[in-house]
Design brief:
2 strands, 79% helix, mainly alpha, disordered C terminus, 20 helices, globular, 403 residues, two-stranded antiparallel sheet, Growth Hormone, Chain: A
Length: 403
């Protein structure tokens, strides 16, 4: 069983990497798609929110379905759907067709996340339960790496073969889904757990700490996405060329991934709540200092701030799963997709603030949002309390070898 669980974790991480690479295909080729289809800026602007709605905001729906039917279908088919539809966006001949491909691909991206996170949670519980934070960090960081590689993959393909041949990138998703189908066991319901409380009751029992955690993640995500979105404009204001600006933005994302990678190990050693609270508490002064200073000191501080800001990302998933282990897919969706999506929708606030205040002052205000997140993490129950009062001590899911 231990060997099977380890293999499952590796395959889920690889699948996450491949899947999230497709989720970042759209942005770098958006100008080419707009040119090909004669889209106005307003029309092109609908594509990213459309992807966000189908891939992020809909995740709780996918999670509820996954928890109810205990299948691995979403995990296996997610990379395939993303690959088939997102890699084909270069073939779109109209805006409706492009929107349809974006929505279908987004469904593949969104459906994968909650169920795969639940499967990773079950695998590490069977294998090394004391390493839950570390394993979820590996799983989460794999997605970050894929998200960072996506623009490079699609840009290289389009540069070599043209926009109409974007579908050449389909192979990665097909291979990932094939490996998951062949070697990744399903989540099945055990007969002995047939009398377990319904999911609605589990969520009701944990709604107070789950709500606290949810809004802590929303505020953290809002700060991270807002800074990432407006950092290019801020760097441009400070006279940086495109290549230099791209390097710093990549560094912000990369260091965020490093933070997520080490966050789980720190949580396993020092406690999830404590590490989450300290990391976002540290992020604010570091980011404020970064936007107050100049030169490479400023850029280094901003990148380190990204590390602190994203360090709690995988830990938050573990915290939610410990609250409601019988609804791991659903709560994973709440803190992975839905909270991130809502946080991303707060990004325009930064733009509104920048109009009367200027971009630097707007980003300084955004850099203070993690302080509110730290307060919410502080209000979250202590790790030992969650372990003692888990709303569903007996898990409803276990690994089986078939569908």
């Amino acid at each position: 069983m231990k060997s099977d669980s380890k293999t499952t974790i590796i395959l889920l991480s690889v699948g996450h990497l491949v899947l999230d690479s497709y989720s970042s295909f759209l942005v770098p080729i958006l100008p080419l798609l707009a040119l090909k289809l004669n889209l106005t800026p307003a029309q092109a602007g609908w594509l990213i929110p459309t992807m966000m709605i189908s891939s992020s905001l809909m995740q709780p729906v996918y999670g509820i379905i996954a928890d109810r039917y205990f299948k691995r279908a979403f995990t296996v088919l997610g990379p395939l759907l993303a690959a088939v539809f997102i890699s084909s966006i270069g073939l779109a001949t109209s805006l409706p067709m492009l929107l349809a491909l974006t929505i279908a691909g987004g469904i593949g991206v969104g459906a994968f996340h909650p169920q795969s996170a639940a499967m990773a949670h079950r695998a590490v519980t069977e294998w090394k339960p004391e390493r839950q934070g570390t394993v979820m960090s590996v799983f989460s960081s794999a997605g970050t790496v894929g998200y960072a590689l996506g623009p490079l993959i699609i840009s290289t393909c389009v540069a070599w073969y043209g926009l109409e041949h974007s579908y050449y990138t389909i192979g990665f998703g097909i291979l990932a889904s094939a490996l998951l189908w062949m070697y990744c066991p399903a989540l099945e319901r055990k007969q002995r757990d047939a009398d377990a409380p319904p999911l609605s009751q589990l969520l009701k029992n944990a709604w107070v700490p789950l709500t606290i955690l949810y809004f802590a993640v929303v505020l953290r995500s809002a700060a991270s996405v807002s800074i990432q979105s407006y950092l290019p404009f801020w760097l441009q204001e400070h006279g940086l060329a495109l290549q230099q600006s791209s390097l710093i933005i990549t560094g912000f994302i990369f260091f965020g991934g490093i933070g997520g990678f080490f966050g789980g190990a720190l949580a396993d050693r020092f406690g999830a709540r404590r590490v989450s609270m300290i990391s976002v508490l540290l992020a604010s002064p570091v980011l404020v200092a970064g936007f107050f200073t100049s030169g490479w000191l400023s850029y280094t501080l901003i990148m380190f701030g990204g590390l602190c800001l994203n360090l709690p990302l995988p830990i938050s998933v573990v915290m939610a799963q410990r609250l409601v282990p019988g609804g791991a897919s659903t709560v994973s969706a709440l803190v992975m997709g839905f909270a991130w999506g809502l946080g991303a929708l707060m990004t325009p606030i930064t733009g509104k603030l920048s109009e009367p205040l200027g971009l630097t002052k707007a980003l300084l205000i955004v850099a203070l949002w993690p302080l509110a997140s730290a307060v919410l993490f502080w209000r979250f129950p202590k790790d030992e309390t969650v372990a003692r009062q888990s709303v569903d001590a007996a898990p409803r899911e276990a690994f089986a070898s078939g569908d």
